[in-house]
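Instructor's aside before we start: the two examples that follow are unrelated to each other. I chose them only because their records fit on one page, so don't look for a connection. First example below.
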Amino acid sequence: MLNETLMGTAIYWFRRDLRLRDNTALLAAAASGSPILPVYVLDEPDLGAGSRWWLHQSLARLDESLRKHGVPLYLLSGSAGTALSQLARRTGATSLYYTKRYEPRSRCQEQDLQTRLAGELQIFACDDSSMTDHNDVLTQSDRPFRIFTPYWKKATASPEPAQPQPAPRALAVARHELGSLRLDDLELPSDSSVSYANLHDTWLPGEAGASQSLDRLESVLVDYSSHRDRPDLDATSRLSPHLHFGEVSARQVWHAANDYRTQPESLPGVAAFLRQLYWRDFSSYLLFHFPDIAKKPLRPEFSYFPWSENSSGLSDWKHGRTGFPIVDAGMRQLVSTGWMHNRVRMIVASFLVKDLTLPWQEGAAWFNETLVDADLANNSASWQWVAGCGTDAAPFFRIFNPVLQGTKFDPQGYYVRRWLPELAVVANENIHQPWRDRAFMSGSIDYPEPVVDHAVARQEALTRHRQMRELFSLVEYGQS
């Protein structure tokens, strides 16, 4: 029943902002003086296994943090619009606070809420998911940028991101007898090919885990510009899942890195790192302005690409059985830890699209299923970039040679040997082409032959690309 003395409740709707520090909407709710009811609504049917595991852990940590303020996290599932509008009416709430999101489904949720609750309560929606407002960074003709560099120049010409704010000192408690779901009722972790035991050993979800990753930035930035493409080195921040779930804000990360500009040895690393942070914003920007990029190629001619139908090749790729060590190591790291080094992501994506000529959407779907940082914007924009069909895309004829990529970025084979222990006895000079090694030829190594001849596959991919262009010209322009 409603406690009549606590009218004027402010509902705080947690989404991908699972933190107390530097949370603009939460600070605004706290400053209002209203008693706060913090709520999370599970309304994401497309969450993959890696994301479901992370979300479970992150919600548990958020609840612990809120309870230190005397405010438990209220959990619901189902349609966010239905759940929140019913909750507002049951509690007599007078305001709703939340952080905007940019995915098409999330924007539909917000529109639904605006329609359902129009005139019933005040709604405060904050732009807090990126470093710049996506409506503010436009070309001179007020159109969205489609190339990163001019976008980046325009975005960085704006004032630098605001200083991060501390967590609210206190939160007034809205005490309603509502009966929250238990976290286990959300049934987030599920049986899958992702190893949950390894995820527990690899990651610390939650705001505290994000703070630990921020604390190691200093050591990362010293060599970041020269080492960030090396999967055999621990040379990246691993902040991506924390950013994805909003356990840390982009502003916090920007300022944490920028503070090291005063150290001459870190300056190149800081510049390279901040550029990557803006790449993340650019992906979100693209999804905001081109919401179909999660499903359709941004370059329309790629709708005519003659993709293969190779279910065995797709299975080999997913489970690290292609016979190319750098590809297989990346895919096994993904299934084991829910994460993959960014350089290796590009290599495995190129292999799927250009060696196996399988649709980039298949790869994006598998990444969505397995990654703990499975961000729709980053995932979609990055796959389209590799496939050559998106904005700022790599040319299709840029086809990574997996042997040369492995030799260049994992020269001693440390990364490959970590994830493919069956290749431990292969000599360094053969680690990225083990079929040339004596141990392999003797049959003493349980590792597959390459599923394709890369040189032949490259020519096949280029042939299919020419066929695509010819068909597009014929269909779109009536030309042969």
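Example two begins here.
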Amino acid sequence: MRILYCNKYNFPFSGTEVYLFELMDLMRAHGHEVALFSMADPRGQPTKYDQHFVPHIDFKARGRGFFGNTKLATNAIYSRDARQRLGRMIAAFRPDVAHVRNIYHHLSPAILWELKAQGVPVVYHLNDFKLLCPSYNMVAHGHACERCHGGKFWHVIAEGCYAGPRGSATLLAAEAYIHKWLRTYESCIDRFVAPSQFVKDKLAENGWHTKKIDVISHFQRLPAQAPIDPAPNAPILYFGRLSPEKGLIELMHAMQRLPRIRLRVAGDGPQRAELESLVADLGVTNVEFVGHVGGADLDQLICSSKFTVLPSRAYETLGKSILESYAWGRPVVASDLGSRRELVHEGETGLLFRAGSVDQLARVISFLSERPELTAKMGTAGRELVAQRHPGSHDSQYPSCDVQPL
């Protein structure tokens, strides 16, 4: 089968792209031919179809003037250029099916109409909540938000929930309304793939017919060698974006109450400076910020930890970091919200706490830290869960879990 992937970034910009490239490799390994339609960026690996890519667009660049900004806004809603370029790529690659992921603004939903016009079946992967929320993540002011329920997209302007300028929020609302009126997604997409039952249920609650929505959770590669137990003095770990909806303020306050437990924070984002200042103000000395970490270095951080902590206040579509933790035999402490309820089996693969509760978070961290045998048992159960329900492959290229003295 010839599969055309459509995604606006051609390099590992975020976890969405990391998973995309892993999926493309998996399809190649099963004998399929794959190609990517994207935005040109030198950080991506060259392909023989790069001449069809959309030129690089920087929405944060200044100095374009009124007409330049107007053109950019129009293309973000419906890019004729992206549609024409995709048409030429379809002619060159001749796909049997298209797998569409993160296309907004840089490619725009216009490409869905070209796929339909060319008779290419479309699978749309729901890796965010864009169909329900113009700002992608159903978050307002650091908390889960459902004010746009039922297509009331004007709330993205009224609530001020988008971090950018008010004009950008207006553009997001306009984009959502236009494609709702055009029925772009209903008309152009053959199957929707939801990574969790929670995502499918949210779409149903907002009036979407579910007969075209399939729940297919992400796969996760497993290290070929079973992980070893962590060192007795190993830290716990948070890895991911540092932003208000991730619940890291509560985590810092919880760590203040747990001075004998160490926390590593791997990641970067708009809240990093605030979090570092908070740690200093609280007099917390058991938290270490290590910045953005990826690849084998992140694997090493996970398997050098006792367990991982995910205190997010947002719903999130899946939480691939949970699967990554399980792959290395590490249980997860997570907020009891959204899709995490499907992955963290209470008392079996990890522990849940009420989102936003510092008291509960501190208690569950303390409870699990004091029980290494239970931690090891949960980690083993998490790895088995990945092997049974989220199979990818046993990857002999993964490094062994070489736990170093900490």
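The chain has a mean pLDDT of 91.
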